[in-house]
Amino acid sequence: AEQIADYFSKNDGLLAKADLEECSAQWVSPLFTDYMGHRVCELPPNGQGLVVLEALNILKKFDLSELTHNSAEYLHAMIEATQLAFTDGLEFVADPDAVSIPLDRLLSQQYAEERAQLIDADRAIERPLAKNPALKGDTTYFTVVDRDLNAASFINSIFHSFGSGVVAGETGVCLGNRGSLFSMEEGHPNVIAPRKRPYNTIIPAMILKGDKPVVSFGVMGGFMQPQGHLQVISNLLNFGMNIQEAIESPRYRIMEGGGLALEKGISPAAEQSLATKGHDPQDSRGIFFGGSQGIIIDYDRGVLEGGSDPRMDGCALGW
Predict the structure, then answer these.
(1) Are residues 56 and 41 in contact, defined by beta-carbon separation less than 8 angstroms?
(2) What is the DSSP string of 258-300?
(3) Could you tell me which of 311, 93, 285, 301 has the C-alpha nearest to residue 189?
């Protein structure tokens, strides 16, 4: 801590030893919504789990399971719900200890129905997400289920690759750059301020059936995380995929600077139809579509089913 504080002091930084002494972890209750007979649990603000849950609430207005998976109609509904939820997330997600966030309103089904009315089946909403793209970063995710069926869903990140790119003193610790997700807009809930946490992208998740966890999973990838969550959840609950299929299935990514990336495996016909609706498909080469790991707990068969994303280095292990 002394070495980190000393580095900041010598380089016009904002962190002092007292800041590190005051820092502590918090035990928080998850946010949740019910979808397709399951309860989806996400981290509350300052995490962006709100985006996933609001999008799911909006998608309750659409019978996705009756659509062809990754068809233009299906992807259009998913993308529009994601856009609307992200708009609210980027406006309201901030440190709840510093500002009041209208979570009850944002997660109400009434509000979701109001947002769903903005979706036109034939025309895309024109609304880029954020000002600066964060295509890939230094995030790791894992999930573990033990023999007593206790489940842990864990994610950790210093944001961009090697975080800030700075190692303080002889610590060997790469300092993160999560502070870059603060807003510089005066009066914004996420405006930078002392003793305040910024918008945070990392969101481990679980899906419950009744009071039991049945899926523990996460998706790495900055602003891709809620988009990946939404697609994995839909693959599992609307299309009955196993965990590996749900993870491997081709994805879309709404780009932070505008435009839409479609992963290889989504048909050219779907891409052309989305373009006709006003979406802006981009060259997806080099685009990161997230990396996921997950476990399904099958109580009836007494089986744990693990899946690992081939987009990244990882594996599923059982012993």
Answers:
(1) no
(2) S-EEE-BTB-HHHHHHHHHTT--EE--TT----EEEEEEEETT
(3) 93
Return the H-helix or E-strand segment holding 18: helix 17-22
Determine how many CB atoms are found less than 10 A away from the CB of residue 6. 15
Q: What three-state secondary structure class fits 221? A: coil
Q: Lay out the sheet containing 291-298: strands in order across.
A: 31-35, 38-42, 205-209, 212-220, 291-298, 303-308
Q: Which residue has the tokens 């981009």?
A: 282
Task: Give 296's Cβ-side CA count (13 Å radius).
Answer: 19
- What backbone phi and psi angles, to 5 degrees, belong to 206? -145, 155
Q: Which amino acid is present at 82? A: T
The CA distance from 186 to 198, in Å, is 14
**Total Cβ atoms within 10 A of residue 111:** 17
Angle between helices 268-276 and 72-92 (to 10 degrees): 60
pLDDT in the model for residue 133: 45
E-only strand ranges, the chain: 31-35, 38-42, 137-145, 151-160, 166-167, 174-175, 205-209, 212-220, 252-254, 260-262, 281-282, 291-298, 303-308
Active site (catalytic) residues: 139
pLDDT band at 75 (very low <50, low <70, confident <90, very high): very high
* Per-residue DSSP letter, 66: G
Instruction: Give per-residue pLDDT as tens, 230-268.
Output: 999 999 999 999 999 999 999 999 998 788 999 999 999
How many beta carbons lie within 10 A of that of residue 109, not counting itself?
Answer: 14
Q: Smallest Cα–Cα separation from 106: which of 121, 123, 90, 124?
A: 90
Q: What is the mean pLDDT of residues 59-85?
A: 97
> For residues 288 and 273, is the Cβ–Cβ distance under 8 A?
no
State how far the Cα of 241 lies from the Cα of 259, in Å rounded to an integer. Answer: 28
